[in-house]
Design a protein that fits this description.
Number of strands: 19
Shape: elongated
Radius of gyration: 24 Å
Distance between the termini: 34 Å
Bound molecules: ligand BES, manganese (II) ion, zinc ion
Helix content: 25-40%
Number of domains: 2
CATH class of the largest domain: Alpha Beta
Strand content: 15-25%
Structural class: alpha/beta
Length: 489
């Protein structure tokens, strides 16, 4: 398990600068100005800081840019990273500045001299998130992350525990998404979720016999070709008494070969991330528990493996969902919706949630439509959807609303069953969402997030190295904080 660096905020102590180990970062809030920490660093380095601040490289710097002075005289530190960050810089610049420092974080740690900079929490979050490294399958491990100490004006005002909770949730998601499918089997996934009991979450694992008794014929049809047993895991966080919960539902296809409708070989290895929805739900639940959110939230994930075999579901098979509706499986590669429809129905029957958000790496078509910048957002409720879009925007996580409509639903008509599981090539992401909508009760405000394009990237992003991003953990944590937490007590 990858854990975030140890983080602390303290009052500025100029005398400790000279002996700080690792790297020292100086945040410069105004071009051409030196505060007391800058003057102290300048004195220790015999004027090198003043020369750096005067240099063309630094005077051309944009907010968040870093200029490095390596192996400075007069300090024990191995480098000084000078960052231009205006005192009232926006959140995005503060996180970006932190990320630049996080990318360089090593074993010996980092001391940040933040002076009067306001968004120190965002600088810290940027440092923690960008310092993530996935080394579980390497024999040569990354260096452990040293401590991050941030000296600022009002250290007591920062909620260090909440920051670390967010980073730990995101790291949990990233680890799950990055793991290969021979390691993260359905059984291993469930075991890792059961380990979340240590955080105070209630965790139940429903096994195949129970899923069959519940009538989850659609979900079971996806997993029946695999030697790994299908499971549904229910994680409850009860931070607000008896109130009905918000439900988060995740697609957890630990590997998607396509089944009998086998995918082409090129790029098939990327389908280790097809449990990204479940991974995100797990990360949000971990964050909520670690920061002891005053909200009731239940996370449910459907864990299956989509494999071809003599026992696999065939194209043309008709399966019966828990709701009772029958589905003609035209394409066994459209499996995510078969998993989600049963978990969503179960969630509504059992918990009568005040709202339901499902997350899934559901369609390649959403990548064609929105690329890797935005997740697709589908909803039956403008108010709820607006709350989510606001939360995503506030966290800098791309999210774009897509339409729904009867004509798209009509594409799902089947000659032999109540519906088919695909609607043809046009509007592939929307017809997938329409399929899910058939399993949403009229009274349930619902959001579907198609995260196929954002869950894992081939290039580094602002706050993550290559690979799993943890997209959605911040937005959903904020959605809960802003809209679903009780304020009393
Ligand atoms: N897991 C895939 C979608 C996907 C594609 C996720 C690329 C991440 C990256 C999903 O199960 C799938 O195969 N969808 C099909 C649906 C089609 C058969 C209607 C697709 O998008 O091609
Ligand atoms: Mn598929
Ligand atoms: Zn899939």
């Amino acid at each position: 398990m990858t854990t975030p660096a140890d983080l602390s905020f303290l009052a500025t102590d100029l005398d400790s600068i000279a002996t700080a180990k690792g790297r020292v970062a100086l945040l410069v809030p105004e071009q051409g100005k030196m505060d007391s920490a800058a003057r102290r660093l300048n004195r220790l380095t015999k004027g090198a800081i003043a020369r750096l601040l005067d240099s063309d490289a630094f005077t051309a710097a944009k907010p968040g840019d870093v200029t490095t002075l390596a192996w400075p005289t007069g300090l024990e530190a191995e480098a000084i990273d000078v960052v231009y960050l205006p005192r009232t810089a926006p959140q995005e610049a503060a996180r970006k500045a932190g990320a630049a420092l996080g990318a360089k974080l090593g074993e010996a740690g980092l001391l940040v001299l933040a002076g009067p900079v306001k968004r120190v929490s965002d600088v810290a979050l940027g440092i923690l998130l960008k310092a993530y490294g996935y080394d579980a399958q390497k024999t040569r491990k990354c260096d452990p992350l040293g401590p991050v100490r941030i000296m600022c004006k009002t250290p007591a005002e920062v909620d260090t525990a909440a920051l670390t909770a967010r980073a730990a949730g995101i790291f949990f998601t990233r680890d799950l998404v990055n793991e290969p499918a021979n390691v993260l089997t359905t059984t291993e996934f469930a075991a890792r979720l059961e380990a979340l009991r240590a955080t105070g979450l209630e965790v139940e694992v429903l096994e195949e016999e129970q899923l069959a008794a519940l009538g989850m014929g659609a979900l079971l049809a996806v997993g029946q070709g695999s030697d790994s047993p299908s499971k549904v895991v229910v994680m409850q966080w009860k931070g607000a008494g008896d109130a009905a919960p918000l439900a988060l539902i995740g697609k957890g296809v630990v590997f998607d070969t396509g089944g009998i409708s086998l995918k082409p070989a090129g790029g098939m290895e990327d389908m280790t991330m097809d449990m990204g929805g479940a991974g995100t739900v797990a990360g949000v639940m971990k964050t909520l528990a670690l920061r002891k959110a005053k909200a009731n939230v239940v996370g449910l994930v459907g864990l299956v493996e989509n494999m071809p075999s003599g026992n696999a579901t065939r194209p043309g098979d008709v399966v019966t969902s828990m709701k009772g509706d029958t589905v003609e499986v035209i394409n066994t590669d459209a499996e995510g919706r078969l998993v989600l429809c049963d978990v969503m129905w179960y969630a509504q029957e059992r918990f009568k949630p005040v709202g339901m958000v499902d997350l899934a790496t559901l369609t390649g078509a959403i990548i064609i439509g929105l690329g890797h910048e935005n997740a697709g957002v589908f909803s039956n409720d403008d108010g709820f959807c607006g709350q989510f879009l606001d939360a995503a925007k506030a966290e800098g996580e791309g999210a774009w609303r897509m339409p729904l409509g009867q004509a798209y639903d009509d594409q799902l008509k089947s000659r032999v069953a109540d519906m088919k599981n695909v609607g043809g090539r046009p509007a592939g992401s929307i017809t997938a969402a329409q399929y899910l909508k058939r399993f949403v009760k009229d009274e349930t405000p619902w959001i579907h997030l198609d995260i196929a394009g954002v869950a894992s990237l081939k290039t580094p992003s602002t706050l993550a190295p290559k690979g799993a991003t943890g997209w959605g953990v911040l937005a959903l944590d904020r959605l809960v904080a802003d809209g679903f937490e009780t304020t009393d007590g």
